[in-house]
Write a structure and sequence with these properties.
974 residues; Ubiquitin-like (UB roll)
């Protein structure tokens, strides 16, 4: 008769049941898994099995095995069956796989807010985390709460779970139909409001002029803030206003908020002894922000007001406060301010410094002497002085001077001038501590000499805790990159062998290595997998590196295809060596439409019908832009972009097709462009251009890009718009077809392309126009640019820009001058807000000898220098600039001569100086430049109409380019 089977229960608690004595100690003949262990887990399971074939069966080993298998995180349930096998026992380990959260997506009609990303996030299902039975119900409940907070009470949510047993993950899709959004109705106000409840309800402004607003989380909270602001306007600063609850009126599809408000007493905050605006008082007294009145906040207000007045030159200011209860519903807080004499910081000296120079120390200081425009009284306060003391002390401590002392001492009436203050920063450096030795303990899997060679704390180097922190980050980064995510770091400081020497001991606990089981991409609905394949840096069996994962995530974002890239490790807390690396992408919108309106105000130059003012006249050019883009074409990451512009100066339509990362090479892009342009920005003529081009760009380094392109261009000049000598019209108005092969090299090392403070920008453009390439003209065109930016002191920046250009015709038609061979639209034109500011837009260079209108030239040389400096506040800066240069007839005519020889001489260098204002905005600085042209040209011209020019009845008149020019635009000049 066989003995009954013994079942070790599904949990550790059940495993505590004592087995019959007949099984305890019997030899294990066989161990099987049901279902069989997956190959990827066999090594992890084998390391954790305390039960071994050929060994006796022990209850403690059963418990240990179950605990270890649970520790892998791969199993939701573990049980062990034991049966008698005659000479011993057979074991069957029953397991139930743990499932993990895979892609979480939202389908259905989108009615934002909330958008699909917010809905998916609200489910609180984290990619790669364990998925349990109750998680789906919780996710639906969380999504419903989010929808209801945004007024979508009639929404339906249908979850769909798609398990993937192979990868032990579940894909979850929530089909959401939002329904109609509810609107507000009359709110209810409860509590000791101190104000009429109707006043509070009206202040929330849940109703617009015509109808009740739609209920969203944002509008609900905005109403609470508006109600709170109403109390603040009534000087009830301690008012507590909150949303108590919201009732949903299902029949009307309305929501009724209940606002709980405790008005509190009226608190009036005043000052005496000095005037200060209410806005400044609200800024510096934290009572207004915190919505409560207590002594700590009032004391903070004292400190803030003292700093405010000391920063304005009242260094001896005394600030105190007193409170008074006028009646139970009215309190008064009065700040008593004694300004004292006003001072100016005229000098800041630094003494006792030997290790650092004074300039190096000043870079860490907030105290400043008075300036000419900004900080007219300098910057000083007791708080600022303490801040600088701490900052300089930290600087020394980070460089080994652990006992450094820093004191800022003000001196009144400096050099017997009443009101002048000098500040002396006295530094006691003390002795510099140095590292004598660094010991690494616990390293078994990395190369110790390589780690030691790159530590900030090296023998002979200054000792500081900041360097130890850098070492900690470096060592842990190296371990994480080497697949040891659980590595930890500790350290100990010990006296060194010599005086003022320190021995550092670093203790590293490596933990177990982790490797990539596989890299899984989800969320690719339109995008083809080959597009993301170029971003894959990790393969199965590679070390699990968070750094590499971060690079992959950044590359996926750089494709410009995905709005969001979620990255995770499946089963992150499980004790297994091989992990799935998960990437879930959210594809971006495939269509984009942009509309823009703007304009340019400057001395633009003349008009289309008149011969008057060829040297420029004040004008306004309105502009409208329309853009349309189709992103991720064919799922390949390509894009189709339509752009159009309509203005009084330019009418343009372009269509381009972009192919990024050609042949899976990052930084190699192809662009195919078609263009139609009708330009009037040079008022000598109206030109039409039809163009097609193919361009290949290649990123050579982080800062350097190369571009190679072929362009075919058809250029036509409308003869009826040419305001030049009628005898030249047949020559200059000939249609031109150009086949151009060109290359451009760009190097950009600026710290900020929009508003650079340091760095360089270089560009070289070389193009060959040849009949062999499909045109009827032959010339070489070169344009080079160098921009240089350097911070010369504080926030003062020196900026310079040089441009040089040359057009060289060859195989010129017999009888045609090289100066007239190049079509008008292809010549260099200069002058304006981004060129030589001594001229209106495109007014530099050679001119028609009869009408005086610009003709452009075959050479260009312009140099600009700017001194950019802070002017007022944090967002406004001023600029002094000097521009020199011109457009020249030919390269050999370039001259630095500053005097015009005659009314027909334009090949000389024009100089202009001026002042500009820049105001910083999110889209770039708004710019106003006022320029004075020192030696502008004079020339022969005509007055009258275009028809009078044709019939030779216009009146000759000597014309001039105005000495004064102004430009209003967006962005720096260069």
């Amino acid at each position: 008769m066989s003995l009954p089977a013994l079942v070790f229960a599904l949990s550790l608690q059940a495993a505590d049941l004592a087995p019959p004595l007949t099984y305890e100690g019997k030899q294990i003949e066989e161990i099987r898994f049901s279902p069989p262990t997956r190959p990827a887990l066999q090594a992890d399971v084998a390391r954790r099995m305390q039960l071994q074939v050929g060994k006796p069966l022990r209850l403690t080993d059963v418990r240990g095995t179950i605990k270890q298998l649970y520790g892998t995180g791969e199993y939701a349930d573990v049980a062990v069956d034991v049966t008698d096998s005659g000479n011993g026992v057979s074991l069957v380990v029953h397991t139930t796989d743990q499932l993990f959260v895979g892609p979480v997506e939202v389908e259905g009609k989108e009615n934002s807010p909330p958008n699909r990303g917010q809905i998916a996030s609200s489910s609180q299902l984290q990619l790669g985390s364990p998925f349990n039975d109750g998680d789906l119900d919780n996710a639906v409940m969380n999504i419903r709460r989010l929808l209801e907070r945004n007024g979508l009470y009639r929404a339906t949510i249908e979850p769909e779970v798609d398990p993937d047993p192979e990868r032990q993950e579940v894909a979850l899709t929530f089909e959401v139909e939002p329904g109609k959004r509810a609107r507000f109705t009359d709110p209810i106000v409860i509590g000791d409001t101190r104000l009429p409840p109707k006043t509070v309800a009206k202040a929330a402004k849940y109703k617009s002029i015509i109808r009740w607003k739609q209920a969203t989380q944002q509008t609900t909270q905005a109403g609470i803030e508006k109600a709170r602001s109403k109390f603040a306007k009534e000087e009830r600063l301690t008012a507590a206003v909150s949303l108590d609850h919201i009732d949903y009126l299902s029949e009307q599809n309305r929501v009724r908020p209940t606002i709980k408000a405790d008005g509190g007493p009226k608190v009036e905050i005043k000052t005496s002894g000095a005037k200060i605006s209410k806005s400044k008082l609200q800024e510096y007294v934290p009572v207004f922000d915190e919505g409560t009145v207590n002594r700590d906040l009032l004391v903070n207000g004292v400190s803030n007001l003292r700093d405010y007045f000391q920063n304005r030159g009242y260094f001896d200011v005394q600030v105190d406060f007193n409170t008074k209860t006028i009646d139970p519903d009215h309190e008064e807080v009065q700040y008593v301010i004694g300004l004292g004499e006003r001072h100016k910081v005229v000098r800041i000296d630094i003494q006792g410094n030997r290790y650092f120079t004074a300039d190096e120390i000043r870079q860490h200081m907030f105290l400043q002497p008075k300036g000419l425009i900004r900080l007219r009284h300098g910057r000083y306060s007791d708080g600022f002085a303490r801040r600088d003391e701490d900052s300089i002390k930290t600087l020394y401590q980070d460089n080994g001077f652990q006992d450094a002392k820093v004191t800022a001492v003000p001196h009144d009436d400096y050099r017997e001038r009443v009101g002048d203050v000098a500040v002396t920063v006295e530094i006691e450096e003390g002795t510099q501590y140095r590292v004598s030795r660094v010991q690494l303990n616990g390293i078994a899997n990395l190369v110790e000499p390589e780690l030691l060679s790159k530590l900030a704390s090296a023998p002979g180097q200054p000792y500081s805790k900041a360097s130890v922190a850098m070492d900690r980050n470096y060592i842990l980064t190296q371990y994480h990159d080497a697949a040891y995510p659980d590595a930890s770091f500790d350290w100990r400081e010990m006296p060194g062998p010599g005086p003022h020497e320190v021995t550092l001991q670093y203790f590293i606990t490596e933990g177990n290595p982790r490797f990539v089981r596989d890299v899984v991409f989800t969320g690719l609905h339109t995008t083809r997998r080959r597009v993301v394949r170029r971003s894959v840096l990790l393969q199965s069996g590679d070390a699990l590196s968070w750094t590499e994962m971060g690079v992959m995530q950044r590359r996926l974002y750089d494709l410009g295809v995905f709005d969001q890239v979620d990255m995770a490790i499946q089963n992150p807390d499980g004790d297994t060596q091989n992990k799935y690396v998960l990437f879930h992408v959210t594809e971006g919108h495939r269509y984009y439409i942009g509309v823009g309106l703007g304009g340019e105000l400057a001395r633009i130059g003349g008009n289309q019908s008149s011969l008057n003012n060829p040297g420029g006249a004040t004008g306004f050019a309105p502009r409208a832009d329309l853009e349309f883009s189709r992103m991720n074409m064919f799922g390949l990451g390509h894009s189709l972009n339509f752009k159009s512009r309509y203005s009084t100066l330019d009418r343009r339509v372009s269509l381009d097709y972009s192919i990024p990362h050609y042949r899976d090479v990052a930084g190699r892009n192809i662009t195919i462009t078609g263009l139609y342009d009708n330009t009037r920005d040079v008022l000598t003529f109206t030109g039409k251009r039809i163009e097609g081009s193919v361009q290949l760009s290649k990123q050579l380094s982080k800062a350097t890009n190369a571009l190679f392109r072929y362009t075919w261009r058809d250029v036509q000049v409308d003869q009826t718009t040419l305001k030049i000598n009628p005898q030249l019209i047949p020559l200059t108005a000939q249609p031109a077809r150009l086949g151009i092969v060109a290359t451009t090299l760009v190097q950009d090392r600026r710290d900020d392309p929009v508003n650079a403070h340091r760095g360089i920008y270089n560009s070289l453009d070389l193009g060959l126009v040849e009949k062999y390439f499909g045109g009827n003209k032959n010339f070489v065109r070169f344009l080079g640019r160098n921009s240089y930016y350097k911070r010369i002191h504080g926030d003062i920046v020196l900026a310079s820009n040089t441009e040089i250009g040359w057009i060289h015709p060859f195989q010129v038609t017999a009888g045609v001058s090289p100066a007239d061979y190049v079509p008008l639209p292809e010549r260099f034109f200069g002058g304006g807000s981004t060129s030589q500011r001594g001229f209106p837009d495109n007014q530099a260079g050679p001119r028609d000898l009869v009408t005086g209108f610009p003709l452009g030239g075959n050479a260009l040389l312009v140099h600009s220098t700017e001194i950019r400096f802070p002017l007022a506040g944090e967002n406004m800066e001023g600029v002094f600039f000097h521009d020199m240069g011109n457009v020249y007839s030919n390269f050999g005519d370039i001259s630095f001569r500053v005097h015009q020889k005659s009314l027909t001489d334009f090949d000389y260098m024009v100089h202009a100086a001026g002042f500009g204002i820049r105001y910083r905005t999110p889209v770039g600085p708004i710019r106003l430049d006022l320029a004075y042209s020192i030696n502008p040209p004079s020339f022969n011209g005509l007055t009258g109409t275009y028809q009078q020019l044709l019939f030779n009845t216009a009146t000759p008149a000597i014309q001039h380019v105005s000495h004064f020019q102004f430009f209003f635009s967006i962005g720096q000049a260069f």
